[in-house]
């Protein structure tokens, strides 16, 4: 069966965040290493943001409150504000390769994003480079819940085997495999560039 759509993850694949950035902010504000990551990626709070239960603004405000327990409200607010004032870096190599190797195949995004996603994509200048954008915060379901994949399939009106799904999270790939999607577990741009022709069978 022919691949009709390429469905790509966003963060860690198309949009990258330099790992040293948070560390430089922590150093600037005299914070212990790793505290920004711990505050912003606290599982329960982050899940509420990416499932649309709270807004992006509420999520960042709550992370500042959490961080304030370590350094006080003023420093925490300033640190989270600076950390937030960044929309990532686009890996143009990935996009150009996709547009070349899969020329004519519509490219859609499936991301566990917050309510700020549209603003970020506009800021990065890539909001119009995709056929469709599926944002968990809008749908109300997050990967790897099988229901979000079923939502995509229904919206696109295609069979699972007609989708090539690219994601850097193995748990997200596993769910796609269960449905019968063709998959590529993304590890680096180098391995992606070396990917051979699609054999239209789920990746093991």
What are the salient characteristics of this protein?
single chain, 204 residues, alpha/beta, Rossmann fold, 2 domains, five-stranded parallel β-sheet, two-stranded antiparallel ribbon, 11 helices, 49% helix, globular
What is this structure, in a nutshell?
The chain has 204 residues and is α/β, with parallel strands linked by helices. It folds into two domains: 5-16 and 88-193, Rossmann fold (3-Layer(aba) Sandwich); 20-84, no CATH class. It has eleven helices and seven strands.
Describe it for me?
The protein has 204 residues and is of the alpha/beta class. The protein has 2 domains: 5-16 and 88-193, HAD superfamily/HAD-like (Rossmann fold); 20-84, no CATH class. Helices cover 49% and strands 13% of the residues. The chain has helices at 20-28, 35-40, 43-50, 56-71, 73-84, 92-101, 117-124, 136-139, 146-156, 170-179, 189-193, and strands at residues 5-8, 15-16, 89-90, 107-111, 132-135, 163-167, 182-185. The strands form 2 sheets. It has a 5-stranded parallel beta sheet. Strands 2-3 form a two-stranded antiparallel sheet. The radius of gyration is 18 Å and the shape is globular.
């Amino acid at each position: 069966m022919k691949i009709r759509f390429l469905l790509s993850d966003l963060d860690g694949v198309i949009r990258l965040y330099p790992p040293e950035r948070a560390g430089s902010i922590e150093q600037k504000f005299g914070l212990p290493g790793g505290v920004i990551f711990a505050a912003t990626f606290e599982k329960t709070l982050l899940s509420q943001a990416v499932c649309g239960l709270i807004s992006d603004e509420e999520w960042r405000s709550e992370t500042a409150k959490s961080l304030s327990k370590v350094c006080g409200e003023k420093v925490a607010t300033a640190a989270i504000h600076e950390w937030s004032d960044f929309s990532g870096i686009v890996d143009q190599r990935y996009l150009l390769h996709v547009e070349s190797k899969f020329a004519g195949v519509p490219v859609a995004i499936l991301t566990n994003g917050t309510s700020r996603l549209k603003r970020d994509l506009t800021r990065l200048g890539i909001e119009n480079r995709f056929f469709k954008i599926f944002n968990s915060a809008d749908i109300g379901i997050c990967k790897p819940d099988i229901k979000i994949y079923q939502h995509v399939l229904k919206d696109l009106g295609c069979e699972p085997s007609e989708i090539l799904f690219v994601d850097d999270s193995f748990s997200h790939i596993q769910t796609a495999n269960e449905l019968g999607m063709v998959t590529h577990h993304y590890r680096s741009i180098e391995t992606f560039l070396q990917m051979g022709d699609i054999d239209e069978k789920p990746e093991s």
